[in-house]
Fold ITPRIP like 2.
Amino acid sequence: MPVYSVNLKVFWPLVTCLCTAVLCLYHALWKGRGASEGCQEDGTSSFPLFKLSLVFLICYFFIKYCAGQDDRLLARAALRSDLQEQAKRSLLETYYQSRVRLSPHLLGHSKAHVAQIVSELIKVGRSEPQEASLIFRGDYIQIGSAYEQHMIHSPDCFDILVPLKLPPNLRTEPLLGASLGLPGPGRGEAICRLEAPRKSEWGKGLKSFGACFCTEGQKKRHHRHLSPALVLKWFHLKMQRCLSVIKYRFEERCLISLSVVEDRLILNILPRSDYICCHIFLAVRLIPAIHIGDSIFLVAQPWTRTDPHPSPRSEAVWAVNFSKLEQKFLSWVKAQAPANSCHLKCLQILKALRDAKCQDFNKNFSAKWNVALSSYALKTALFYLLLKGPLEAWDGKFLMERLEEFVRFLVESFQNQVLMHFFLGNSKPPESLSVPKLIKEACPVNLLAHFDTPILELVSLQLLSAWAHVHKVLKHCYNGPHYLARTPRTPSPHPAYGFSTSSS
């Protein structure tokens, strides 16, 4: 049996018209009857009451109709909003799958190839120790987005920490942040230095070490500081000798070379097409590092290239690297969050949106945009959001809500000019991590301290605009996969925070 429903668009206007017609008809009949019978006394008592009743009904039906229109408009607007949200999610999902997410096969092959060559380099370097010199510890640390599962575009850039060991009778005394007194950009960086023993404590075997790797202290001449610039120089020569030993072992598999880009040592790998199915150029940044605590390393950073006004003391300044702690935190989140958690997916989408929007800016502002929204800043914001609420909220079905929250958090941080370092000076780190006391008691570091207010305000406005018009931003930004390029990308430095991570 068919079921019929009332069309409210027709029903309420029709009822109003009928009531109006009845009122007019009754009014006409009553006037005619009064004229023929001359009964004016009765009319004055009954007609006005009936007339007022009909007018009331007409007004009621008209108001009901208008209210129904408002409800329908609201419902239509809500439906349109839902459709737009679904369309935005569909666009992001499609873009993520086709242009952001890396092929597990390609990434796996690239990482395996890098690991094989780096392992051989470290093995050769460790087998050739020199007296009273730095030596390779014998292992290497894989860091950066490629090993944290949030790399985007192409798996062609990798970062590797190469731990070094000091001579056993040397002591280290790391000093953090504000105690170094660096001007300008130093306010927003995680930096550290090493101190060697006093001059009177040096034995004969350490004199050559001091001459090769140390600089005199600025305040106390009897103190010496381990120089990152001198360590980098030694490291470059050491790796070049190691490469000359293993180069011919791999000549049938790939072409290997070393290059120095702004004092950064890059290992370039070009697999031969008949050796590996994923024939792409690979760029691996090799970073000398010194272990100072539980999962904390000091890395040699060429500060003079990133600081327009270098301090004399910057010659002895090292960068603090927390990559191992970050990897431990992400592993803990992965174990606690839902199986289809979208936290890394959100990070990848925000990085892709950053890169896409950057194409609309001039060279000057695009550089500031990339630093303000660097991978490290985005990752720091994500860490705070992960601790803000229950991890169940990061289920994949809440992707749009979490992306919206991510953008709002970044905008608020830029407007307040505050995004604190997740580890340095954080007295209440995640309970799942063992953070050294030295790090917890350090002065807190604001990653946005060196930005001017107008720049951060402009970045926040552009970020909101990019998110509001994400469909327009993403549709014209793709020019093909990066791994089809003729040369590999160079792992970009991280000037704002004192250490390097891959740009993706």
In short: The mean pLDDT is 79. The radius of gyration is 35 Å. Residues 8-95 form one domain. The CA atoms of residues 356 and 476 lie 8 Å apart.
